[in-house]
Amino acid sequence: MLELAILGILHRAPMHGYELRKQLGCLLCGHRPAFSFGSLYPTLRRLQRAGLIAEDGGEPSASAGRARRVYGLSAAGREHFAGLLAEVTPQHWEDDCFGVRLAFFSRTPPEARLRILAGRRRCVAERQERIRSTLDRSCEHVDHYTRQLQRLGLDGAEREVRWLDELIEAEHRQR
Amino acid sequence: MLELAILGILHRAPMHGYELRKQLGCLLCGHRPAFSFGSLYPTLRRLQRAGLIAEDGGEPSASAGRARRVYGLSAAGREHFAGLLAEVTPQHWEDDCFGVRLAFFSRTPPEARLRILAGRRRCVAERQERIRSTLDRSCEHVDHYTRQLQRLGLDGAEREVRWLDELIEAEHRQR
DNA sequence: TTCGTCATGTAATGGGTTACATGATTAC
DNA sequence: GTAATCATGTAACCCATTACATGACGAA
């Protein structure tokens, strides 16, 4: 997931780790509290060793102790990224991943887009049903606060389903 | 977090692990995909060794290979749970924890309730502001899909703030 | 008798955070 | 010259998941 996000952002423009993290935080926009450097930098190293990204502009590491390391996507990286975007697995519509997947939709093949949106819709509709049935079963004997929480969750799920329907419809119109 | 949730559910009624997991799934209601047994059972064991929970009804483990183990809160467990509910830390209003914390609000001291609700409100309002400013800055040059995602996120944050305001107001009325 | 569900558990693994340490650059 | 911020990195740890293995019990 972090890997996908990094490749996707570097696909737009070369960047150093610190800046990358800011963009990442922007991308995830509150869905999760931006990745820590402790996971970001090791991942960059791993991607570099794997040949998917490369340092731009010679070797700044030789100049001074610690300088910016600007990374860019390599040809292999671009290819790998395209491969990831063409994939569709159930994981892609789970909460963790869906946001990141959507962020790179403009470079995702249209069929993959539709399948992910459909999967997400199913997933959220199921959650909605689960909450609704819990809410129905627990008419009076359940904690007031728990019920409020369920109400919020149900509302959120309903809104997301409508939002997804709009996106799906837009996809169909576009064809 | 898992610990808090387990203690809270066992506080209502003694229960075995399998059943506990179902209740847990209900409690978290889609906020996260219920804990796996691989983390549930070891945690039960840990709580048992710590003396916070105890097996009900003698030793069913002697009767057959694997039978249900029904756990209940011990006196120490009840005390520990009360202590946890009286605590208020920033962590308590983060996404991960807030739902579980709220689920046990009826046994949470009123001042702690208000402080957690206020913290959560601040947290969500900050997210809202962050998204709004991102959305403003990125008028036209940002990806259409990313903008849609931000729109959904902003909407969700706004609704949660209103929802929190209702809860907070209800708390004040109740005093 | 076999299949699905209930029920408990262990070991390997993973993906991330926290805390810590270092150094460069900019603003006051 | 010193404080804040920018910037990179490592090591220890935590919490949970996955995969696996065992076994009871009821229904077809």
UniProtKB/TrEMBL annotation, chains A, B:
Tell me the protein's name.
DNA-binding PadR family transcriptional regulator
Q: Which Gene3D superfamilies match?
A: Winged helix-like DNA-binding domain superfamily/Winged helix DNA-binding domain (1.10.10.10)
Q: Provide a Gene Ontology MF annotation, just one.
A: DNA binding
**InterPro entries from the UniProt entry:** Metal_resp_DNA-bind_regulator (IPR052509), Tscrpt_reg_PadR_N (IPR005149), WH-like_DNA-bd_sf (IPR036388), WH_DNA-bd_sf (IPR036390)
Where in the numbering of this chain does the Transcription regulator PadR N-terminal domain appear?
A: 6-81
Statement: the UniProt record of this protein carries the keyword DNA-binding: yes
Q: Which Pfam families match?
A: PadR (PF03551)
Q: Which UniProt keywords apply?
A: DNA-binding
